C-alpha cells in the first residue's frame, strides 16, 4: 500500500511539474525582480547609447565607436542602499536601426526600465524613437506605468544643434515620461539619469509620479522648463 501511494504521488508530481517549454517561456517573459534590474537602452545608431552606458558603468568616455554586441549585457552592481545587497543593473544596449527585431522584443519583454536616446544634433534621431516607444507600449500593455521610461537628448555639449530642449520636453510630455539632456563626453546628467531609474524602481507606485525636466541650458531655458513631466 505504501509503495502504491508513493508511486501515485510521484506520478501526480510529474503531471503538475511545469514542462521545459513553459519554463523557457516564463524565463523570457517574466522580468527578474530585485536581483537583476534590467534596463534597456534604445535609439538610432550614433546617438551615443554605448557612450552613456560606458560613462555610467566604467566612468570613462571614448570617441571611438564600438557597436554593441547583440546579446551582451553590461553589468553594474547597484549600491546596497537601493535594493539590498547583491542587486545588479543589467543594461542592454540594443543596436540601432531595424536589425534584430526578435531580440528587441525579447529584451523589452524582460525590461524593468527604458532609456530612449536621441542626439540633439540630429532631428531625425528624435523622430525615429516613436517606433521604439510604440513597441514598448505594445509589449508592456496596460502595465506600462510600472516601467519607468526616460527620454534622453544626448550630446548637449555640442554647439551645433538641430533640436532645442523644448523639442525634447514636448515629446516627453506626449509620452508621459521623464526627460534629461545629457553629455556622455562631458559627463553631464549621466549619474542623474541612472539614479532616477533606480529611485523609481525602488519606490514603485500604482500611479505615475512627476519627474522634473532637466537640462544644461541657460537659466532662461531652465525657467521656461519649470514644469513636471509625469513618469
Topology:
Layout: H1 2-16, H2 20-29, E1 36-43, H3 49-58, E2 74-77, H4 80-83, E3 88-93, H5 101-110, E4 113-119, H6 123-127, H7 130-140, E5 149-154, H8 165-175, E6 178-181, H9 190-202, E7 210-212, H10 219-224, E8 228-230
Parallel strand pairs: 1-3, 1-4, 4-5, 5-6
Antiparallel strand pairs: 2-3, 7-8
How would you explain this protein's 3D organization?
One of its GO terms (biological process) is signal transduction. It comes from Myotis lucifugus. This protein is an alpha/beta fold and 231 residues long. It has one domain (37-201): Rossmann fold, CATH 3.40.50.300. Helix content is 41%, strand content 18%. It is built from ten helices and eight strands. It has helices at residues 2-16, 20-29, 49-58, 80-83, 101-110, 123-127, 130-140, 165-175, 190-202, 219-224, and strands at 36-43, 74-77, 88-93, 113-119, 149-154, 178-181, 210-212, 228-230. Strand 5 (149-154), helix 8 (165-175) and strand 6 (178-181) form a beta-alpha-beta unit.
The Rg value, from CA coordinates, equals 21 Å
Task: Give the DSSP E fraction (strand runs of 2 or more residues).
Answer: 15-25%
Order of helices and strands: HHEHEHEHEHHEHEHEHE
Q: State the CATH architecture.
A: 3-Layer(aba) Sandwich
The best one-word shape is: globular
Count of helix runs: 10
- Going by CATH, the homologous superfamily would be P-loop containing nucleotide triphosphate hydrolases
Poorly predicted tracts of residues: 204-231
Structural class, from secondary structure content?
alpha/beta
Largest sheet: 6 strands, mixed
CATH class term: Alpha Beta
Mean pLDDT: 77
| Number of spatially distinct domains | 1
Instruction: From the 3D structure, determine the CATH topology.
Output: Rossmann fold
Q: Strand arrangement, largest sheet?
A: 2-3-1-4-5-6
Instruction: Provide the helix percentage.
Output: 40-55%
> How many beta strands in the DSSP annotation?
8
Distance between the termini: 62 Å
Amino acid at each position: 500500500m505504501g509503495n502504491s501511494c508513493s508511486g501515485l504521488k510521484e506520478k501526480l508530481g510529474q503531471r503538475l511539474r511545469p514542462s521545459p517549454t513553459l519554463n523557457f517561456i516564463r524565463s523570457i517573459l517574466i522580468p527578474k525582480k530585485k536581483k537583476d534590474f534590467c534596463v534597456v537602452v534604445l535609439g538610432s545608431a550614433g546617438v551615443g547609447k554605448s557612450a552613456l552606458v560606458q560613462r555610467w558603468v566604467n566612468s570613462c568616455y571614448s570617441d571611438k565607436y564600438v557597436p554593441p554586441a547583440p546579446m551582451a549585457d553590461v553589468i553594474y552592481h547597484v549600491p546596497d542602499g537601493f535594493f539590498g545587497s547583491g542587486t545588479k543593473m543589467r543594461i542592454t544596449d540594443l543596436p540601432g536601426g531595424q536589425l534584430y527585431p526578435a531580440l528587441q522584443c525579447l529584451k523589452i519583454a524582460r525590461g524593468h526600465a527604458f532609456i530612449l536616446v536621441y542626439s540633439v544634433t540630429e532631428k531625425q534621431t528624435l523622430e525615429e524613437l516613436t517606433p521604439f516607444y510604440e513597441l514598448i507600449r505594445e509589449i508592456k500593455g496596460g502595465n506600462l506605468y510600472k516601467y519607468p521610461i526616460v527620454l534622453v537628448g544626448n550630446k548637449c555639449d555640442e554647439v551645433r544643434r538641430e533640436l532645442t530642449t523644448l523639442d525634447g520636453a514636448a515629446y516627453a510630455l506626449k509620452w508621459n515620461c521623464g526627460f534629461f539632456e545629457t553629455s556622455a563626453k562631458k559627463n553631464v546628467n549621466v549619474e542623474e539619469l541612472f539614479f532616477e531609474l533606480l529611485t523609481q524602481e525602488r519606490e514603485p507606485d500604482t500611479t505615475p509620479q512627476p519627474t522634473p525636466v532637466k537640462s544644461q541650458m541657460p537659466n532662461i531655458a531652465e525657467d521656461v522648463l519649470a514644469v513636471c513631466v509625469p513618469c
